[in-house]
Design a protein that fits this description.
The chain has 231 residues and is mainly α. The protein contains nine helices and three strands; from the N terminus they run H-H-H-H-E-E-E-H-H-H-H-H.
């Protein structure tokens, strides 16, 4: 390949501003904005390597507490039981994740909680409730997870609506969303669009937004198994 077409060499640690083993120096450079995006990724990986065991232990402690005492988690579990399945500590797993997601649902595997990306018990509760809505939808509505963007958009809309992750206080404190009107719906649309856009069969964010809009009127008002939005 000619030199003028060669791919650029990857950044060295010096170029990124991240230096392995220099914990406080890295924090200082992060605070001053002297770390590149690649350096931030390296810093997160090093942090997660160091904290993996503790992160998973804390996540499991929160999971076990929520399964026993959280009203929304207990309610969702009971309704999943009525559909012939169960979610428990053996198929709700805390794991380290290498992306920025908080969790995920797989019809064969169960629920994964991304221990290194969960900040506190409330974050675990919102994430677990979100994934339990996906589990409920899979059992109740036979969601086609592969190749059907309308199904994906609908369950994402419902999960963001019912889990509590888009309630105003969470948006205000965690994401600096200051609007009082239409904030709830805008949050749901944003999160559903992002999730659909990340699916391999989705061409781009424009297609994702279009699909979310197409199913919005039928999926947003559907609060099953709740009588109304709980949180």
């Amino acid at each position: 390949m000619p030199d003028d077409q060669a791919s650029p060499a990857p950044e060295s640690n010096k170029d990124t501003g991240f230096e392995l083993g220099d914990k406080w120096g890295n924090i200082y450079r992060l605070a001053l904005g002297r770390v590149t995006d690649e350096g931030r990724r390296q810093w997160r990986n090093a942090r997660d390597d160091r904290n993996e065991e503790a992160d998973c232990a804390k996540c499991e402690k929160h999971r076990d507490y929520l399964l026993q005492y959280s009203p929304i988690i207990r309610f969702m579990r009971q309704n999943i039981n009525k559909l012939g399945a169960d979610l428990h500590d053996e198929n709700i797993r805390c794991r380290r994740c290498y992306t920025q997601q908080s969790g995920g649902f797989d019809k064969d595997y169960g629920i994964m909680l991304c221990a290194n990306n969960l900040q506190n018990q409330g974050h675990v509760e919102d994430t677990l409730a979100h994934e339990m809505v996906h589990a409920y939808d899979h059992l109740r509505f036979q969601v086609q997870w592969e190749g059907n963007l309308r199904h994906a958009a609908c369950t994402e809309i419902r999960a963001s609506t019912l889990s509590g992750e888009c309630r105003w206080l969470r948006e205000f404190w965690k994401r600096s969303q200051w609007k009082f009107t239409q904030q709830f719906q805008e949050c749901i649309r944003r999160r559903a669009t992002l999730s659909v856009a990340n699916r391999p069969e989705c061409k781009n964010d424009v297609e994702a937004a279009t699909v979310v809009n197409e199913v919005w009127d039928s999926c947003f008002p559907d609060t099953r198994p709740f009588d109304e939005v709980y949180r």
